[in-house]
Amino acid sequence: MTSMGNTRRMMSVGLIGAALALTLAAPARAGETPTAATDRNAASWELTPTGTDARFRGLAPVDRRTAWAAGSKGTVLRTTDGGRSWRNVSPAGAAELEFRDVEAFDARRAVVLAIGEGEASRVLRTEDGGATWTESFRNTDPRAFYDCMTFFDRRHGLAMSDPVDGKYRILATRDGGRSWQVLPNAGMPDALPGEAGFAASGQCLVSAGPRDVWLATGGGATARVLHSADRGLTWTASVTPIPAGDPARGVFGLAFRDRAHGIAVGGDYRKDQPSPQAGAVTGNGGRGWRASATPPPAYRSGVAWLPHSRNAALAVGPTGTDLTTDGGRTWRTVDTGSYDTVDCTPDGSCWAAGEKGRIARLGRH
């Protein structure tokens, strides 16, 4: 393994700091809470010392001090000091597993999803900060391939698989991930030929509020977003303007700041292929999507709303980070570092993770 050492390397992204200061320093609107990030005049991505070369596509920051990351080679890391140090809390005997999603409730309780065909798709849970793990689900259907996971609260959560018998398969828990059941698919629309989800950032299945959940797709003739308002029992599908029509193209990541306002990002993940329309927005819960007027310039796999902002969000991908300050209508690149996923916490911290052990935190400490 390649260690990144104990010295943090500041990424030169002054534009992030300037935009954040401009966006977040504005007076809070009625019903909004001012964020501690208003003083981030020098905000930037700051790499943290993970001590591993694993690729982290799963990320679950809890607050300013606590975050979890899950990645390749069965690797799970946890920090409780704001990223100054990371503890390797990987499950024993998991080196062959590919963790692509993690959902964390606090510093001690977290759930990770391993992807793959058949029994490679598994869910593991810890209640002691990763000291011990319990396998709570192992897929026994060779046709299923689980991609992403989301939780509505500390008890209720869902995981999704690529289509089985022509429909996406939904797995549900009511006890915080201790046990799982496959939901009936009577309320699931038919999948398009060649359609599937992308296990690229842990954001192909996302939720907002107690019951609403969205599922991102690609690979079919069109890139779609499926929405359920009853925790996965019934779904409706809508077409996005993000290009599809190829197994490498579609919607890779979603973020909703409430049950109405959402952003979709994606494109074509192949390095030699352009992604001319990599962003879209919705203001009606995903019933309709509009193309970003100025989209991210390249494929993006992860997206997150900035804390306590109605209009600011970050999108990340292998070629950089983009910022929007108008709800996803226009984007501008503010960093060229490689990240696969990004997430922010209610107390004002944002984190990103990706290849070669890269985990970074936005803002000054």
Low-confidence stretches: 1-19, 21-42
Series of secondary-structure elements, N-terminal to C-terminal: HEEEEEEEEEEEEEEEEEEEEEEEEEEEE
The major β-sheet equals:
8 strands, antiparallel
- Overall pLDDT level: 90
Task: Tell me the number of helical segments per DSSP (H or I, 4 or more residues long).
Answer: 1
The number of E-state strands comes to 28
Q: How far apart lie the N and C ends?
A: 28 Å
Secondary-structure class: mainly beta
* Shape designation: globular
Assess the beta-strand content as a share of residues: 35-45%
CA gyration radius, whole angstroms = 19 Å
Helix percentage range: under 10%
Summarize it.
The chain is mostly beta strands and 365 residues long. It is built from one helix and 28 strands.
How would you characterize this protein structure?
- This protein has 365 residues and is mainly beta.
- Helix content is 3%, strand content 38%.
- It is built from one helix and 28 strands.
- The strands form six sheets. Strands 6, 7, 8, 9, 10, 11, 12 and 13 form an eight-stranded antiparallel beta sheet that branches. A four-stranded antiparallel beta sheet has the order 1-28-27-26, with no helix packed on it. The chain has a four-stranded antiparallel beta sheet with strand order 2-3-4-5, with no helix packed on it.
- A hairpin with a 7-residue loop joins strand 20 and strand 21.
- The radius of gyration is 19 Å and the shape is globular.
- The chain starts with 13 loop residues before the first helix and ends with a strand.
- Mean pLDDT is 90; it is low at 1-19 and 21-42.
